[in-house]
Design a protein that fits this description.
The structure is a homotrimer. Chain A is mainly beta. The first copy, chain A, has a single domain, classed as Beta-galactosidase, Chain A, domain 5, CATH 2.70.98.10. Chain A is built from five helices and 27 strands. Chain A has helices at about 35-40, 115, 260-265, 350-355, 380-395; strands at about 15-25, 30, 35, 50-55, 65-70, 75-80, 85-90, 95, 130-135, 140-145, 150-155, 170-175, 180-190, 195-205, 210-220, 225-230, 230-235, 245-250, 250-255, 285-290, 295-300, 310-315, 320-325, 335-340, 360, 365-375, 400. The longest helix of chain A has 15 residues, at about 380-395. The first copy, chain A, is globular, with a radius of gyration of 21 Å. The interface of A and B includes residues 58, 109, 125, 330 and 331 of A.
Amino acid sequence: MWGWGLIVITAVSGEPFQKTLIDRATNLNVASWSITSREVCSDACDAWKVTKSRLAGGKQEGVDVIEIDSGRLRILVVPTRGMGIWQVMDGDVRIGWNSPVKEIVHPSFVSLPARGGLGWLDGFGEFLCRCGLENNGHPGRDTIKDNTGAESSTDLTLHGKLAYLPAEFVELRAETTAPYRLMLHGIVAERMMHGPKFCLDTTLTIGPGSHRFHITDKVVNESASPAEFELLYHTNFGSPLLEAGSELWAPTRKVVPFNDRAAEGNIHDFAKFGPPEVGFVEQVYCLELFGRDNGMTVIGLANKAKDRAVSMKYKTDQLPYLTLWKNTTAIEDGYVTGIEPGTNYPYNRSLERLAGRVPKLPGKQHRLFEIEFAFHSSKDEVAGLQKEIEAIQAGQATDFIPKPNPPKAESSR
Amino acid sequence: MWGWGLIVITAVSGEPFQKTLIDRATNLNVASWSITSREVCSDACDAWKVTKSRLAGGKQEGVDVIEIDSGRLRILVVPTRGMGIWQVMDGDVRIGWNSPVKEIVHPSFVSLPARGGLGWLDGFGEFLCRCGLENNGHPGRDTIKDNTGAESSTDLTLHGKLAYLPAEFVELRAETTAPYRLMLHGIVAERMMHGPKFCLDTTLTIGPGSHRFHITDKVVNESASPAEFELLYHTNFGSPLLEAGSELWAPTRKVVPFNDRAAEGNIHDFAKFGPPEVGFVEQVYCLELFGRDNGMTVIGLANKAKDRAVSMKYKTDQLPYLTLWKNTTAIEDGYVTGIEPGTNYPYNRSLERLAGRVPKLPGKQHRLFEIEFAFHSSKDEVAGLQKEIEAIQAGQATDFIPKPNPPKAESSR
Amino acid sequence: MWGWGLIVITAVSGEPFQKTLIDRATNLNVASWSITSREVCSDACDAWKVTKSRLAGGKQEGVDVIEIDSGRLRILVVPTRGMGIWQVMDGDVRIGWNSPVKEIVHPSFVSLPARGGLGWLDGFGEFLCRCGLENNGHPGRDTIKDNTGAESSTDLTLHGKLAYLPAEFVELRAETTAPYRLMLHGIVAERMMHGPKFCLDTTLTIGPGSHRFHITDKVVNESASPAEFELLYHTNFGSPLLEAGSELWAPTRKVVPFNDRAAEGNIHDFAKFGPPEVGFVEQVYCLELFGRDNGMTVIGLANKAKDRAVSMKYKTDQLPYLTLWKNTTAIEDGYVTGIEPGTNYPYNRSLERLAGRVPKLPGKQHRLFEIEFAFHSSKDEVAGLQKEIEAIQAGQATDFIPKPNPPKAESSR
């Protein structure tokens, strides 16, 4: 395993190849560029290719995308949308989902406050979309400090700004000695005067030909004063991985329906997925997981035949709350499940604060988050994943709570 | 007449010339391009020219425009603003209006929710501006389904999003055999997750040297579930066609003032226009029209001398409600009239729903809308138009309602 | 002194060099360009250089900037942000401030209504940022005329739109005869249908090698009807000019704390600045100044050693109200003071109207505003400035009001 608890990019042996692609400090944004392993490490490493290009047409005009083709996985990263990952191709199989939003929408076409704070949904289509950093979750009233320093009640918008902020810095690093890893490093700033001054420093690491990749994220509070933040990894899967008979595997300590709609189903079936259903209304579940002694946990989504799965490995002390979003509506309307580790559940921040689930970063401090994604494409690999997850559960009972239990203010309990 | 009830573009004989100008699927947006009849049909057809260019400077930075010069009419279409028509030049005469907004404003400079939902007015300047598709009309509270599937009260914005959505696909087709028609085909998507999934598929058709052109619009509901929609063709005329003594000709079944301000005038004079008046406050009228047996109706706006007019021909079963917007304010403030066939009147959608004027499209279905515009530039042509319209009225009485009758909820009647 | 009460650009002797850099009317925006004195006036004038360039990376993608290097001062003007001045370099010393917003943010990445109308703060970082024109000051409810001509209550946004509007016209003029002045002339339009139709016509004038420059602004009401407006010059200073021991020098007739927070300090110390303090909450003071007989006044900000200062000279009949914004928070959070002459104080417009501080422009009229900035870099120059300001005070007493006195509606007094 790679560098858990380290910033991977500092662990490189030898002098890596380095190319800056975006840098606001030097007024740089390379519109079109590509490089192959042959140019960097000749025949010493397996064939890989990295390509940066700029989209055109409709609401994707001006969007920058970077494809990392590791030889096996092809990962499409979108600097213009907060370094989100649009999709991962595992050979011919697309891991991601078919959002009704068919373009990779440029932030300039979206007004987050629109439609009661749901403007974020105008561009939502990622495989991995980070939600935060000032807040994530449902729109609605919460208290902020306004420009005069006074407490002021305002409307938060769904899932925050992060996915609609363009990266201010992006560089590719490629090791020139074994294990010849590729590292895509980006910085996304969520800064304002009289408000949050956050920075997401993210590195995606993958080895040539590998079936897995690693995300190392630092959330930095650039302010001299402490600041609340929220971060949720909105990871989304549609067809073909998601189908009737797909299953979520997770070492589950506790599961609670998010609201009355989620409570309609049998809570014991929360991990099973149905086929696309016209008019299906989303069901959301709030999970807590078991981890190994070091806090590491593993979750997976497997297809019906159990010959294809994607897994996520992370530490529950970094990301203690897992949200499962089951949205098995018609294909046309976005048949998808979201498997979303976070610092919190997606209730409005005002409620999450009541529940003690809004972390605070001291001034000039950062917090580290890491997730490793792996793509399993045979019965054996999938069976191995299932065993690994069962070993973490280790026979410990799951607490199935049938009724929703949203955070409540003292006065309304 | 051309292909009423057909998608005109499918009726082409021979192999037409085809050029794709914008296509998000292939990541294409041709910045600058032009073609003439000589290159397509040599001397066989009358001279025409089509030019695509990109604007710069101020709030028009990055806006794509396409001019179709048919030999007589020059039509300026704006893909970046929902395939609206900015103006039509009939020889030296500009048909359109002088909006105080002097740029063709790029959507990225406009926030629709701003100023109480009136942000749309920051860029309004079109000859033909489509209003919709989730809603059009006045801003204000209405119920939507939010991201959880719950009914939620939110603020709609004036006239919806459609005019602020860039086309995701645009192609020119030109027939290479008689009648050598030009067809500009565009697709504008109004899609979001957990919300409307509409598509406007529009074709503008004109023959070389013709004094008329034809709009064929399909509104497609891409969702698997039914969806309400609203569509209004905000067609606007200023000087020189609009002047003191100009008249609207329409086979009018019924006319009602929109509000108390409109009721201030003599309802029998609703069709007559005055000169520019400083500080004039708009007067709006709600009309229902007579049509021929097949539902076709014709309306026109004629100047004082009755030697110039523009007419619109359409079917009242497609567009049952006609809104007349008289805004004869000072030239500097936008001296203009809007003649606006629609599926509804421009009351807030919550009111239009009460009146039964919000149509619903079943899942994966579309509805067709067609309008033919004709430009008349002699006393004889204008007299002919007047006769055509009178023939539809055919002596049938108009119901003049002097008091406004806005839709009301049961409880408030 | 230069042309007070004149539009300077009309006062040029001889045929000046002229270059249009942005013009929406001719569809022009020169991406990259520069010129030097050598090309314009050979060796006759001191060396100067003007450069236009376009930024890239992060939220500054597509922003146009123009640097005027006069030989001594280098002034960075941002056409894309309402012709604001980002910073002034006086030799090696940067006059401006270190906003936590590190990019020169493009308007398309900002939604002004966001976060309770505080979206403006997402891009605030200028040395000189004009606030207006429909309104400036605090966000919150006020009455506007809506699209129907009715009085409607809506939320104004912080400091208005002006800093988020791209210039529609920019030209450089350079005199080819003595005194060889450079003039950067820009037009920024704040126009909408059914709303304000303003235009800012601004000229920045500087002589080769000069330590001062002159701003001549015309605010034009293009409407035929009268219109309220507000204009405030948000001029901002951070390190090194601002430090513990810096002082504001101003011939002060009256000073009142803006709110209870500002009243916490000793009102007699309002003009003294402290060091950066983590968590410091801004203190704002409302000043009225004395002027000379002709209304001209001078104010200055001097560093602790009194060997560096910046001064502003303007007429109190043009800009009767001066706001002092003391925001001596941590460096990381924006250690800054704003010295802000305006037509009003930054209370919400609804309050300013009650106080009679919202001016009205008749239809098709303009009003003139002029400010001269000078940069003093020796003890002698700074002492001279102090004497000039004391001479205006001329021993007249300052009225120190210890309690805030915000405008109140009659009913709530």
